[in-house]
Design brief:
The chain is of the alpha/beta class and about 350 residues long. The protein contains 12 helices and 10 strands. The protein folds into 3 domains: about 150 residues, no CATH class; about 60 residues; about 120 residues, CBS-domain, CATH 3.10.580.10. The chain has a 4-stranded mixed sheet. Strand 2, helix 1 and strand 3 form a beta-alpha-beta unit. The chain is globular and about 75 Å long. The two termini are about 35 Å apart. The relative contact order is 0.07.
């Protein structure tokens, strides 16, 4: 993910911090300083850092549980809204997904329980009043209990939504289970949004929107994977596209894009084999920085996956997700360009096959 800094690796998984998280820390420090001075600013920043350390532990609960089933995780990214563990795949067997989903909240319960066990329940309760000299650990225990409960809400993209999907999938299959879990999440989001509206609590309305759109994204992703498991790249790729050779100039690419709706242009070598992809944004930057007399190879994307058109569509979808490229270049049996697979073309396939997808 762009605009993120690496903090190192833990057990083979890289930890990244997004620049917006640093801005969030600065804002917390400044706000605390205004209300309570230097010590309040230090305490506020330390508390947020401690919470996000627990968030990292939460994510590693998922990571280590998924690793038991052969799923690897590329990195964990810390954002102001929490942590994101980018797994290469999520176990799809219901029992395995249930274990992975519950592992994260369980870590928060263990952290809270450990703090309460060390300090004692009465001491924790007493420390949460406004007159306590040190409230860091008691507040951290309370924050971990909140994280556990919030993440167990039965709605995507929270862990509770994935646990609900896993339980439903034991009876009805993953696709139908995801669809039903999405509907349940929508009901929860509507109720939360209405409550926030009537009570004048905008944060609840924001959470409701987060749940609504997160549920839709999870449902669409599951539908895409279901459709791709029954097709090959050739079934969804765009064909009949205009292409350019490696010797073409940016001015030629500009003329091509002006007179067509095509946004990305495959670049081919002298044997018609795909070597890169020229995007509309890349072309615009190239024209601005270097002019139209430069070759398209100077601004084309080179790290674009190239897969056989006969390859399973699941492999194409995986390449799209992991590469971050706008498309996958498909080749025929002789290595020549055959088509371009994009998320948009995958969506079209899903639109036409949706009624036929079932478990």
């Amino acid at each position: 993910m762009g605009w993120s800094l690496s903090l190192g690796s833990i057990a083979g998984t890289r930890i990244r911090i997004h620049i917006t998280f640093l801005m969030f820390l600065a804002w917390i420090g400044a706000a605390s300083w205004q209300t309570g001075g230097q010590q309040a600013a230090i305490d506020g920043v330390l508390f947020i850092i401690a919470i996000f350390a627990c968030v990292v532990a939460h994510e590693f609960g998922h990571i280590f549980a998924a690793r038991r089933y052969g799923a690897r995780t590329r990195d964990v990214i810390l954002l102001p809204i929490g942590g994101i563990a980018r797994m290469e795949q999520i176990p799809e067997k219901p029992a395995q997904e249930l274990v992975v989903a519950l592992a994260g909240p369980l870590v928060n319960v263990v952290i809270a329980g450990a703090i309460i066990a060390v300090l004692g329940p009465d001491a924790v309760a007493a420390s949460l009043n406004d007159n306590a000299p040190s409230r860091l650990l008691p507040e951290l225990a309370a924050a971990n209990m909140f994280l556990a409960v919030f993440n167990l809400l039965p709605a995507f993209p929270m862990d509770g939504g994935r646990a609900l999907r896993a339980l439903l999938a034991l009876k009805m299959g993953r696709v139908r289970a995801t669809d039903l879990a999405t509907r349940i999440g929508h009901v929860l989001a509507l109720g939360m949004g209405l409550w926030g509206l009537t009570q004048g609590k905008p944060i609840l309305m924001l959470i409701a929107a987060f749940i609504w759109f997160g549920a839709n994204a999870e449902n669409r992703q599951t539908q895409l994977h279901a459709a791709s498991s029954r097709a090959c790249i050739a079934d969804a790729m765009l064909t009949g596209l205009a292409t350019l050779g490696t010797g073409a100039l940016l001015s030629e690419a500009a003329a091509l894009m002006v007179h067509s709706t095509q946004g990305d242009v495959p670049i081919l070598d002298e044997h018609d084999r795909p070597v890169g992809l020229l995007t509309r944004g890349g072309l615009a930057h190239g024209l601005h920085d270097m002019g139209g007399d430069m070759p398209v190879t100077s601004v084309m994307l080179r790290d674009v996956p190239v897969l056989p058109a006969a390859e399973g569509l699941e492999a194409g979808l995986s390449a799209l997700e992991h590469s971050g490229a706008p498309g996958v270049l498909a080749s025929d049996a002789y290595g020549r360009f055959a088509g371009l697979l994009t998320l948009e073309s995958l969506g079209r396939l899903l639109l036409f096959k949706r009624g036929a997808v079932s478990d």
